[in-house]
Design brief:
Blueprint: H1 2-31, H2 34-41, H3 58-68, E1 72-81, E2 84-91, E3 107-110, E4 117-121, H4 134-144, H5 148-173, H6 181-188, H7 197-211, H8 213-227, H9 229-239, H10 245-250, H11 264-282, E5 286-295, E6 300-307, E7 318-323, E8 329-333, H12 340-353, H13 360-401
Antiparallel strand pairs: 1-2, 1-5, 2-3, 3-4, 5-6, 6-7, 7-8
């Protein structure tokens, strides 16, 4: 009775999730190679390395971007791609009208060696589907179905159902009855090649889910972390030592400063000093600076580096906040070793985005897993359709013979 209930639960939750998982799987496979695809589609956004040239520092790049577009304020800049620096911009307030300037972009890209502009794009305007916005569109489709907060929440609940269904699906692979457990369960891990189409699809669905179960669970649960954070934070807070996003925000009350006393140059210099102090205190080495930001609502600068404690390469997590007026250290965080729950969360992030020590083999695995999710969804629908047709045929035969 219990097994039959779980079969029905797995069947109907799978059918409900199919469309979503196909979209998430296909887009996720592409996002594993975001930079490579973007470089292929939009080569103008990537610079040609200058032999012997030294990369410009973060403050210089921020200053040049703001000089190019005085109506815009640089929010943050990321120097994590070898041949490109990305800067997120926000409009300044027009003193004549008291309203923000109207900008037709929210990102500007610079040559990391010369500071020259490579291009601009508006990543957060879902109505603009242009070649330059292909990868941002794929990302929005993957994270919110391009429906903003509503789509974001929908995918969060799908991820939660998917997480629970991972355990249901695993349970259904276990052999029913007693005796010869391992011999019976071994069959669930195999695909019988010389069999009917139905049996092959069944084996692909069952064995595919078993062999990749740990990663499927990681991707489902990390989806909850991204899109349904209250649930994720509640569970993680119960199980581990964890600083939640809400705790973090409470520790940084709003203190808006539109024009901090420290400029980009002073903030970078102070950030370097504070990071060196933290490196000596916590026993890590700074490998390179990777990000600089100003958070106006809190009145702080954020300075990020890749350190010996980082396992992510495109989004390092060794970060500190410093006061925009005084330069005082306001907060510091490491990607691992401080709070167990946060370390786990950072690993989930890295595994989900294929950013583990820069391993190309793992990124390829993430791409293949996206396609596997599509396969599992399609085979699940096929099995349901075949069984439904068989049941209908049996019902017709019973009525005929009655």
């Amino acid at each position: 009775m219990i097994r039959r209930t779980f079969v029905r639960l797995h069947r109907w939750t799978g059918l409900v999730m199919t469309g979503f998982l196909v979209i998430v799987g296909l887009t996720g496979a592409m996002l594993a190679y975001t930079i490579e695809i973007d470089r292929l589609i939009n080569p103008q956004l990537f610079a040609t390395p200058t032999p012997g040239a030294k990369r410009l520092d973060l403050a210089t790049l921020a200053e040049r971007a703001e000089a190019m577009v005085p109506e815009a304020r640089v929010w943050y800049l990321s120097d994590s791609v070898p041949d490109q620096v990305s800067l997120r911009c926000a409009p300044r307030v027009n003193p004549a009208t008291g309203k923000p300037y109207e900008l037709d972009f929210d990102h500007i890209f610079l040559n990391p060696w010369t500071g020259e502009e490579l291009g601009r794009r508006c990543e957060y305007d879902r109505s603009r589907v242009e070649r330059i916005n292909v990868m941002p569109f794929i990302y929005n489709l993957h994270t919110s179905l391009t429906f903003g907060d509503f789509g974001w929440s929908v995918l969060g609940y799908v991820a939660l159902v998917w997480t629970l269904d991972c355990f249901v699906g695993f349970y259904l692979t276990l052999p029913a009855g007693s005796g010869h457990f391992w011999r019976k369960w071994k069959i669930a891990w195999l695909v019988k090649r010389r069999a009917s189409a139905f049996r092959i699809n069944f084996d692909l669905h069952r064995a595919g889910g078993l062999w990749t179960w740990p990663l499927l669970f990681v991707f489902a649960w990390s989806g909850v972390m991204f899109n349904l954070s209250p649930v994720y934070e509640k569970v993680t807070g119960i199980a581990f030592d964890y600083q939640s996003g809400e705790d973090f925000i409470k520790s940084h009350p709003d203190r808006p400063i539109a024009n901090p006393k420290l400029d980009w140059r002073a903030a970078q210099t102070r950030g370097e000093q504070l990071m060196a102090q933290q490196a000596a205190l916590h026993g890590f080495t700074v490998q390179r600076p990777s990000g600089l930001a100003y958070i106006e609502a809190w009145g702080v600068y954020s300075y990020t580096v890749q350190s010996s404690r980082d396992f992510r390469r495109r989004s390092p997590g060794t970060n500190l906040f410093l006061d925009g007026d005084t330069g005082e250290l306001r907060d510091f965080s490491l990607p691992n070793g401080e709070h167990t729950g946060n370390t786990i969360s950072n690993w989930l992030w890295a595994l989900h985005y294929g950013d583990v020590y820069g391993l190309r083999s793992y990124r390829a695995l993430v791409c293949l897993l996206g396609l596997l999710i599509v396969m599992l969804s399609v085979t699940g629908v096929y099995l349901w359709w075949k069984k439904r047709r068989a049941r209908r045929g049996a019902a017709v035969r019973r009525r005929v013979t009655a």
